[in-house]
Amino acid sequence: MELYHRTQIQDVVGLDQSALEAVEAGFRALGQGEVVQPPILSMAIEESNGEVDVKTAHIRGNDRFAIKVSPGFFNNPSLGLPSLNGLMIVFSAKTGLVEAVLFDEGYLTDIRTALAGAIAAKHLSRQDSRRATVIGAGVQAELQIAALKLVRDIDTVDVWARDTDRAEAYAVRMRERFEGLTVHVHGDLESACREADVIITTTPSKSPLLYADHLPAGVHVTAMGSDSPEKRELDASVMTRAEIFVADTRAQSETNGELKAWVDGIVPFEIVELGKVIASGQSPRIGRDQITVCDLTGTGVQDTAIAGFALKRLVAGLRQQNSPGGRDVS
């Protein structure tokens, strides 16, 4: 068994086409019925304002599967510690033996979450999308745009966040990271969304932020902040206005995602799962003015896909390092 730390993992895994293809393949397998994926195991640790989520999945035919343990302790910043942490344990799918522990401190979760947003936009947004609106100004707000640029030629970003100073700091970071990228900071959501081709929500909000009135014709919305029963980012009007609603999994969207808006479980529109869209090989968008919405709650198959991808690159790097004339990539 090998133990890999965050710095080693960051050296070999980032937001690139190969990583995107690995996560996309996981979604495709899910859509084809080739994945065993149990429900998320969640545990609250209320006295410490904490929670722990455990996710896993096995893609039939794969040599490995992963179990991810993801703690979130939200008083940690006052102690000088990060709120989110975690690790992934990679097992052999043939023997059940542990092959590696990826002590990534949540890094791979950030990467696979951003790539899932890009995959949703690849299949649901207009191919000529150039302008993206981001709601929120944290780590995912930055990573989502970086990943989106793998599939769409984004040249303009509009950002809104409750904390204007954080939004301004986000704009500075993004201009420095991407040469030629235009970034506008907005004081209200209506103006931030007015010219959007893609809207991405990246907040931990517990009440809806985005409403149907905010949506221009032809926009694609990726909602990725609602991943637990108490979170909501989309008003029900956003989903009923959309011609197409896609979820990573319907069951998770109903319990942790945006379909919680229908407490009786009776949803007044068709729901398609992202894996089935990918497996079909056809975009469901049929017109320029269609509005599409994708709700991403985070799935175990994403974790198994990115963990397997990371371990392959780590092992390849060690082989190269140990070969005659090899270089150190770890």
UniProtKB/TrEMBL annotation:
GO cellular component: cytoplasm
Pfam families associated with the record: OCD_Mu_crystall
Superkingdom of origin: Bacteria
Alphabetized InterPro entries for the sequence: NAD(P)-bd_dom_sf, ODC_Mu_crystall, ODC_N
Name of the featured protein: Cyclodeaminase
Origin species: Kushneria marisflavi
